[in-house]
């Protein structure tokens, strides 16, 4: 973790927000850590154990299932 993130917290890169089918996600603008916007619209770090639901897309560019 870079020092500004340790002091100020992570900052989501609003130009790189994407939707994983459940929540909005974005990388931290400074260190690239995966972040998630929760139901109260607070950005926090993505937690693999808490947030690793199978109906989420894992990556921004993952294509949907082809019909
Ligand atoms: Zn960060």
UniProtKB/TrEMBL annotation:
<feature type="region of interest" description="Disordered">
    <location>
        <begin position="48"/>
        <end position="67"/>
    </location>
</feature>
<dbReference type="Pfam" id="PF07874">
    <property type="entry name" value="DUF1660"/>
</dbReference>
<dbReference type="InterPro" id="IPR012455">
    <property type="entry name" value="DUF1660"/>
</dbReference>
<protein>
    <submittedName>
        <fullName>DUF1660 family phage protein</fullName>
    </submittedName>
</protein>
